[in-house]
Design brief:
By secondary structure, the chain is mainly β. It is built from no helices and eight strands.
């Protein structure tokens, strides 16, 4: 499973047991699945969709940001 940390100037939110994350990357919509290769992405305006096991999906609206993926940890800075 994926562990996701979303940080903004206002707060930091941690999401656990994520099975997939859909991101509005600068070059198009990108989906992150478990064991994704290490990556860095610039994010544009849109929705981050976090699909959790046995829970309702979480949608986070963003204006812009950046994302770093490594070892099933996704760090998003807004």
């Amino acid at each position: 499973m994926i562990y996701c940390i979303i940080t903004s100037p206002e707060k930091t939110t941690v999401y656990k047991n994520i099975k997939s994350i859909t991101l509005p990357a600068f070059r198009g919509i990108t989906q992150i699945l478990p064991n994704h290769a290490e990556a860095f992405m610039i994010l544009k305006k849109g929705n981050i969709i976090l699909k959790q096991l046995n829970k309702k999906d979480n949608n986070v609206q963003i204006a812009s940001g950046e994302c770093y993926v490594k070892d099933n940890v996704v760090k998003i800075i807004l």
